[in-house]
Amino acid sequence: MAILRFQAVEKAQNRSRVSVEAPSNKVSDYYGINVFNEKTMKATISADMFKKLTDTIRKKQRISGDVADAVAAAMKSWAIAQGVTHYTHWFQPLTGTTAEKHDAFFDLSGDVGLFGNSEVMEKFKGSALAQQEPDASSFPSGGLRTTFEARGYTAWDPHSPAFIIDSNSSKTLCIPTIFVSYTGEALDYKAPLLKSVDLINKAATGVCELFDRDVKEVKATLGVEQEYFLIDRALFNSRPDLVMAGRTVFGHQPAKGQQLDDHYFGSIPSRVRAFMADFELEATKLGIPVRTRHNEVAPAQFECAPTFEEANLAVDHNLLLMDVMRKVSTRHKFKVLFHEKPFANLNGSGKHNNWALSTDTGINLLAPSSKPKENLQFLTFFINTIKAVHTNSKLLRASIASAGNDYRLGANEAPPAIMSVFIGSQLASVLEELEHNAEVIVEKGENLYMKLGIDKIPPVLLDNTDRNRTSPFAFTGNKFEFRAVGSSANCSSPMTILNTIVADQLIEFRKEVNEEMKKVPKKEMAIINVLRRYIASSKSVIFEGDGYSDDWVTEAKKRGLPNVKSTPRSLKAYIDEDVLAMFEKHGVMNRRESEARYEMFLENYMLNVQIESRMMGDLATNHVIPTAVKYQNTLIKNIKGLKELGIETESTETITKTIKDISHHISQIQTNVEAMTEARKEANNKESEERALLYDEKVKSFFDKIRYHVDKLELIVDDEDWPLTKYRELLMIR
Hints:
By secondary structure, the protein is an alpha+beta fold.
């Protein structure tokens, strides 16, 4: 292993930057050229068919066979003209990654001659566009079907455009789809997301009617900031734990890490910049609007961010971007790490979800305005969102739960597991005044909005609303930033839940306003009265201070805010009776789908911890201990030689102490690895819920103990012999 380590270091040090050239100096010349978008569709199908398609999508009706055939024919001709040979339904199973099964466009003619069938033809019908039948037996289902019930269906999502992936000169047309079982239950992330998008549209539009009856549609919008680590591929391959578990289970903190804050927003290394330029180029061709790139806090950590898009498309684009980054990194001899905490004692990576609501009239419902009436509308959606977070904080925590994110949350560089909302001091003052401005009596000719203090909101814009990176859910001027989402996550899960809880709250708000309007003469006063009650009942979730501090944990407990630190315990929110009823009532997920997700997410957590545990045992037993013993024997031989020569110095005492220290660390590693293995065996004999809890509370309890002694040995054993590539090499060579 030590040989592999030094070979990897040598390769990494001798890498050269890959040259990247854009096809044009103008991004507009090639933006979206690999996407079957609206512009391409208009150019390739008849105006009549295009109108039928858009009308059908807008009315959320089933796409007819003739329209599907027309779109399929146009899509096939466009793709083949660009060198595409295969197509695939691109879907999002509950594995956390995307999936695809490629089919060739060509087919046999069906006429069998004397010498067999030699006639082929390009074929792609509307039926193949609309629906496929991939084998669902090996995908997670949480009990929705047994192994022998293999049938699953992918169905075209026309809201997200088809695109071409070019991989090693092989081009494939990818068609975004949902993935459901034979009985219709969702086996993916996208189907519930689409239902939640439809739900928030109806709920928000219903509330908008109180202010502007011209609003006919409200879209949830999303901008995803993606953090990641980038290390040389040879160095990555020299670390079995990175290869198998996505994170380093061992590794002593380097002398220089991130303490000088010199990497953050620093000059981007040339090799890294070439990689960034390359994946941004590919993303641009795919219509992904990546706008921002920079160094992050930890060494070898970076971030990219797009402009906001409609939520469903933004999720697809984020998953596609991650896939593009992985593929492009191969060309540059890099490895992209999306794990939330690949390196101990360094900042982990998140995926900040910037969420807002936008009307078809061009209004951002979460943006303060210069018009008092629009500010009442803003406050309505602003306060209802806060109320939704307060009521459903456990569910929101569950939406970002994973084995990787547990290492990151609350680790002094990420928001804690306590769900709170940051809104900034000025908006906090507005809510305070609104809550306590009890009985407002408006005389004739007086301005209601001025009397309520709503006219003061316009100055509270972007510059007056701090970001507060310690908050898991922060208002940042015209949107909410859900910062607690992990970097490897599929954003569908947190966005499905956020859309659903806000929609549920808006529906309840509309009912309460209708009741209140029976008691007061003005609609505005009815709205204010309901909002005032919401502020009073949910203000405990608003926190403006340091979310990293121990004081906040104590304060949150006093406020009654839940602090669910582990994934197995947080996931139970999925099967809370109120949650099951809410999802079922709104048609986002039925009871079976919610319960299945709970089972699948528990299983996924357990398997991830199991892999890490096995990796720890393997590395400790087969690599670390033999290396330590070998070095110990060298020291013993050295002392024997000194004694034979009659040399007794202080150094012999030091060496003797080092030998004893090595023995102690080896003994502790062996003892804890054996105990961890027994804990794993015990857990494996339990049912899923108890098994996941045992992996969290028993098996994981040995991780830090084993790591401590391994990392101590790293400081003792001769650097020439140490088998695992060190942090200073992984993080500083690029």
